[in-house]
Design goal:
This protein has four helices and two strands, in the order αααββα. It is mainly alpha-helical. It has one domain. The protein has a two-stranded antiparallel sheet with strand order 1-2. A hairpin with a 2-residue loop joins β1 and β2.
Length: 94
């Protein structure tokens, strides 16, 4: 018996979030945007060095976005880590 995949649209969420602004599309947009910025920033260097910089930047962003810490992806944890480090913590003396 064959089963078919039914792509259902969740009406509680925005359609743009479900179709266009998915995590994968945002990651690809971030990689393309950062490479365009680096392309404009590093205008005067050799083409081989420019390709190496773009490749290493793309690889670093992919590794950063797919790595997990305790089963949670790092892009979800980084804002919480930063706010925790910047907040005023009350310490009690023992």
């Amino acid at each position: 018996m064959k089963t078919s995949l039914n792509y259902k649209c969740n009406l509680d969420q925005n359609v743009l979030r479900q179709v266009i602004f998915t995590d994968r599309n945002l990651l690809i947009g971030l990689i393309i945007g950062s490479n365009l910025f680096l392309f404009l920033f590093f205008n005067d260097i050799q083409p081989n060095t420019k390709i190496l910089i773009h490749f290493s930047n793309s690889l670093a962003l992919i590794l950063l976005s797919t790595s997990r810490l305790d089963g949670i992806y790092l892009p979800y944890l980084l804002p919480k880590i930063i706010t925790f480090l910047l907040s005023n913590k009350k310490r009690r003396d023992i």
